[in-house]
Amino acid sequence: MARQKIEVDIEPLTRIEGHLGIHAEADMDQKKYVDAYCYSTMFRGIEVILKDREPADAIWLTQRVCGVCPTPHGTAAALAVDMCYHAPPPPFAVAMRNMIEISEEAYDGALGCGILEGPDYSELIMSRLNPDIMAQANRTKSSRIDYHGYETIGDIMRGLNPITGSLWRKCLNGSKKGIEMASLMGGKHPHVQTLLPGGVAKTTNVKDLETFYALTARWIAFTKELVCVFDDLLDFCSVAGLDKTGVTPPNLLSHGMYDDPFAYDAKYDHMSAWGEKRAITPGIVLNGKLITTDLVEIQVGTNEFVAHSYYEETPAAEIECDPLGNKLSKDHPWNEESQAKPGKEKDWQNKYSWAKSPRWQDWKRRVDGQTHVLEAGPLARMWVAALARVVPEATGTSFKFTLPAGAVDGFRVPQELALEWKIPKTINALERIRARAYFHAFSAYHAHRIFAQAMDLINKGQANTWTRYTKPEEGLGVGMTEAMRGALAHWCVMRNGKIHRYQIITPTAWNCGPRDQQGRPGPYENAIIGTPITENPSNGKLDGIDAVRTVRSFDPCVACCVGVYTPDGQIIADRDLEHIH
Amino acid sequence: MKPINLIWLHGQSCSGDTVSLIGASEPSLLDMLTGILPEVGDIRLAFHPTIMASWGERALRVLDDAREGKLDPFLLIVEGSIPDEEQAARQGGLFCAVGDRAGKLVTANELLLELKDRAAATIAIGTCASFGGIVAGKPNPTGAKGLMDFLGKDYRSALGLPVINVSGCPASGDNYIKALAYIALMVRGVITVPPELDLHNRLKFLHGELAHHICPRGGYFAVGKYSYRFGDPYCMVWLGCKGPISYCQVPRDKFAGHLGGCTTVGSPCIGCTEPGFPDEPFSPFFEMAPAESLATGVTPGSPHFIKECATAQEHLFHLISRRI
Fold first, then answer.
1. A-B contacts (CB, under 8 Å)
2. Residues B196-226: pLDDT tens digits?
3. How far does Cα A133 stand from its chain's mean position?
4. SS3 B104
5. Count of C-beta atoms within a 10 Å radius of residue A228
6. Residue B195 in 3-state DSSP?
7. Is the N or C terminus of chain B more exposed, i.e. has fewer CB atoms within 10 Å?
């Protein structure tokens, strides 16, 4: 008897940034997804628009790649342009940049958990697609009720109903506070205004720092509840049978973030050293083991492949070595050509996505010298940092920190709260969301420390926010940081004082890329394959909730989506470069 | 009282205007959705890809309902620029698909044309939707333009209004929400006077003043004190501030929660509210607004603008002669 298969096509996938399509095949006898393709059908001209402009302008322009995580783009661009211009910022400016970037985590973590991903576990969705789980949730008491006030898991799920739910609203308000913090330090948000080569364009003002401090206190009060409520919800969902959704192997990438004001000097030669001093240690984990924490090793091994993407192969390397003499592949972002090569729509055997397949090559042969599929995100970030044990919060198996006390009206936990994020046994959709909530909490804890650091610098009379520089004619720059949803980097090649080539690899590119030349699926595809079907088909169709939960757990951000289709399925574009955000 | 529905479409957008709306206060986004304004009543976010609970077919069905009049009255809100689909068609394709309707991709442009006449009002949110913005920056590979150019100068909504532009990249959430609230009060008949618009169809109560005139650093300009380094607390014309050629309230009203503000905190204005942004004379961002760009202006033909620019230019000549 032929197996009963259902094809699921989802477009638009809502509650993500941008435009992403999913094609998945469900085997109803095995009750699981057996095949999946994720494709981005978009065209973006940002790199074309950037060419021949002032490199510094990229700090403003590249933020417009994405209105959901603009600040990490601004930060990555500022780091890349610092390097191109030989313009190291003074320590106080680095602290300010950290404040600007960390404010975005306050907003983005709350948005991701509560508004974008949370509703997949809301009563609205659960009662329609997983009524059994909903009934069970209504009977299950919350174990952390004192910390968040929701008596049963069913109450939490009702709280997550969009617009009407109290938790949804609390997250929206929490998110708003983050936008306020970013506006305070960045002049405005989205698209902060104050990042600049050699520092920040911000007049030092103790009053602003105190406002930041007060807003951080509110953030801390909110995140205490957020972590507790998501712990309860996710623990329940895990036991209720959603723990097999979106499982991936522990091959992880993190660029690390929050530079040390006294270590960062914008020099490529010293990048390994200042990278190690980040508050979140960068690194790569292969098969659960930490391979490196060296930013140079990470960036040199980063390549993008186009076997299943609508691009021509880059013919040859223009830049053969990095400034330290390490050999670069022709597919390294300092070399990538990205000539578009249009192809048929949904041609799974050939090219089917505008996303490329970023892969990391183990060029120092720490394991096998091969290229690897890596997953990025808050889970990768904390996992890498926990294993690295460079920072005091890292234990080797967990990440531990204590949120300070503070009574904030309207919130339930005035006392200190010790939190420990433990490396999970399995990576799945639920653990990705949990990691997001914990990273939101860690960032609040760190924001509190940055404030103290900044005040200390002011007291020592080191409140200078910018160092004047002389711009050279030629330059190479790379800026590596983390957006909430994972590792982000910008690469800039400057010729005659203008942008010659600008490449961006975003976390969503790492995660949503199509199959590579060896046929290995990207993390989204891999996570859908094997995911059990928990909904019952109606009229022979599936809503696709399990595939949707899987993909949303990565917090996709697919900006400026401009697909170019022909009626017969041809996809056409200009010669332009394109990236997935 | 029937709820007012919001149909929020994304053209070539980055969702920054959606995020900015979260930062609005008095009323906040949530206030609008929960209905704190007695005369406005219920406002429903019927279609918004970033926020709505449903996905795929179920989500797109909302737009069919709107087209069939089941969601009247509704406001059509557009974020992101509108590409030139004719250019795409000549290449045999299309540029901006919003979703899959019965196996066929449907473009933002098609949906706009389907919904424009029934919409009580049509509001372009952000500089991309207003004027094309960064997507239309040189060399404008997709022929992107603003909604007003797409629907035509003569377009009128069901309330008899042209496209209303709320520019800014993004504008502050407060500006968006104030524009929405004004229109919602018009739908309810509380306000009967159409809003006063500038030459670019922007609301005068949001875009009636030059950033330079309302900047807290303006007093330093008046007494001739200038920032020569980033971080200095004075007027930033020498650092490339485009406040003298940009109509924006941010320096005074600041941003989310009335905090920050570009020039307020020390960052030169880059002109993100203006038609022509991000090309010359707005970029390179650190380059001083050239005197001739001030004279011709970014809005040729506007007597008000030219008058303002002449004043600014006079000051700049004064500055230049001092420097020499």
1. 273
2. 999 999 999 999 999 988 999 989 988 888 8
3. 30
4. strand
5. 25
6. coil
7. C
Across the interface, whether the CB atoms of A199 and B23 are under 8 A apart is answered no
- Identify the three-state secondary structure at position B310: helix
> A538-542, long-range: CB within 8 Å, 24+ apart, which pairs?
A540/A6, A541/A6, A542/A6, A542/A8, A542/A26
**B residues 173-232 closer than 8 Å to A (CB):** 173, 229-232
DSSP β-bridge partners for residue A357: A305
How many CA atoms, within 13 angstroms, populate the side-chain half-sphere of residue B23? 34
The reply to whether ipTM tops 0.85 is yes
A147: nearest Cα among A379, A384, A412: A412
Q: What residue of A is the nearest CA neighbor of B127? A: A64
Q: How far apart are CA B286 and CA A394, in angstroms?
A: 42
Residues 6+ apart with CB under 8 A from B153: B162
- Give the integer Cα–Cα distance in Å for A577 and A20: 18
User: Which chain A residues in 163-222 lie under 8 Å from chain B, judged by CB atoms?
Assistant: 163, 169, 172-173, 175-177, 179-191, 193-194, 196, 198-205, 208, 211
What is the biggest distance separating any 2 CA atoms in chain B, rounded to whole angstroms? 68
Q: Domain B4-206: what homologous superfamily?
A: NADH:ubiquinone oxidoreductase-like, 20kDa subunit (3.40.50.700)
> B85 CB near a chain A CB, below 8 Å?
no
A397 contact partners, CB below 8 Å, separation of at least 6: A386, A422, A423
Interface list for B 13-42 with A (CB within 8 A) = 13-20, 22-23, 28-30, 33-34
0.90 exceeded by the pTM?
A: yes
First to last CA, chain A: 43
pLDDT in tens, A488-518: 999 999 999 999 999 999 998 999 888 998 9
Q: Which CATH architecture has domain A5-558?
A: Orthogonal Bundle (1.10)
Domain borders along chain B are: 4-206, 209-323
